[in-house]
Amino acid sequence: MTRTAIGTADTRDAEHSDVTRVAVSTVIFTLRREPGDDCPSLVMPLVRRTRDPHMGLWALPGGWLDISEGLEDAASRTLAETTGLTPSYLEQLYAFGAVDRSPSRVVSIVYWALLRADEVDAQAGGYAAAGTEPENVRWVTVDRLGHLAFDHNEIVDYALWRLRNKVGYSRIAHGLLADTFTLAELREVYEAILGRRLDPANFRRQAENSGSLIPTDDFRTGSHRPARLYRYNQDVELADRGPLDIRPRHESSTS
Amino acid sequence: MTRTAIGTADTRDAEHSDVTRVAVSTVIFTLRREPGDDCPSLVMPLVRRTRDPHMGLWALPGGWLDISEGLEDAASRTLAETTGLTPSYLEQLYAFGAVDRSPSRVVSIVYWALLRADEVDAQAGGYAAAGTEPENVRWVTVDRLGHLAFDHNEIVDYALWRLRNKVGYSRIAHGLLADTFTLAELREVYEAILGRRLDPANFRRQAENSGSLIPTDDFRTGSHRPARLYRYNQDVELADRGPLDIRPRHESSTS
Questions:
Q1: Ordered structural domains, chain B, with CATH
Q2: In whole angstroms, what is the distance from residue B122 CA to residue B106 CA?
Q3: Which value does ipTM take for this structure?
Q4: Strand partners, B220
Q5: Which of B16, B21, B92 is closest, CB to CB, to A95?
Q6: Which of B66, B145, B161, B241 should be substituted to probe chain A, the one whose Cβ sees the most A Cβ atoms within 10 Å?
Q7: Around Cβ B221, how many Cβ atoms within 10 Å?
Q8: pTM reported for the whole predicted model
Q9: Closest partner CB to B70 (pick from A71, A99, A157)
Q10: Measured distance CA(B121)–CA(A226) in Å, rounded
Q11: Residues of chain A scoring pLDDT < 50
């Protein structure tokens, strides 16, 4: 299943070298705590290219837009074909169309989504368990991607910039955390995204004042002293896409 | 010059009905004070379609992406061809690709820009002077667009939503006002964009506290009492596009 979208793409290269073609790619972010790691890291799935151009290099999941499907549907389909992932929604990131970004002329519409680790496990069959990843799919920490195919390093840089600049507390809590979470867990999410440590006291104050968190009566117990669990405030909009949001692709799981 | 891009587009419809083609469109906002109007209104240029589909309807300026030009270059070229406008930069708004948005399959990458009225006059030969507009170009107030071709009403709605939600003080001051301006002029810009009146005292307080305005020693005199002129704070970023900003199309006039 990994090779379908990639193979199709390369077959078409020869047929339509004189036209501009439309492709879709997807940036999926999730958090993954490696055994022994103190903090979780931001990771994303990559797919190895099995044909030229860039055979052997890793690339974002994606493929060609079919003439009879919408842009988001195409991104969703090719993501599922290459990685098995089925996010409840994808958000359009940007259209990349530089003339020299591929040997033939390709405009790529890029989508992105945040996924919780348990969603990834349920959808992709447990990427975290060693040896279960398909041979041509790999989850990589965002600061260790290496040289990707095409302009995909540039695309990831832009996605990270958007994630770091435009995403509010509520959105990240909903996208990467379980329904309830401690403030320390929320802080770890932010530290992973920003790539730096945050002062716990300052973070707690900002989070509590954000209006997007609601304290519950539950506490998480364990090796540390009990920590209160918070939940996401449903009154704060998750991903306001404005008038484009009138036709959701399918029901969102606002659990 | 108005008909070149439109005509080319329609000629190709028959040739490539089995492929997905890429088009570009542009949303240009400016402010225009009609004779006798108390406040300026937000207006945008539309181009009348001279062929099917949607012959006779008004549409956003645009045309087909050439295989040898970048997305922003194509948007810039087709905007100039249809309206004579040459903004110093365009920002990518969104890629529209619904299957049924055109009789043939077309993905439109939409760009947008804010222009000052004096820039429009200099570039397009003075749209405000009655009778000088090309027959197939019209500047229309955004709340009186009527039924546009294709999904262009939806595109304008999205552009307005982005303008109203995401644009900061400094950006609007730079995009729609002269180098120096009074707080009343700045408020009128906001009123035109938001489509409602704002309380002058509240607005003044917020503007002065925004950090994006610098008071000058100059005053505007006229029929009212002298009003201090402000300028835009150059230290506040104009349009932070993140890592995509490393290759500006051409020099920006940060006057």
A1: 3-166 (3.90.79.10), 169-232 (1.10.10.10)
A2: 33
A3: 0.81
A4: B227
A5: B92
A6: B161
A7: 9
A8: 0.82
A9: A99
A10: 66
A11: 1-15, 128-132, 237-240, 245-255
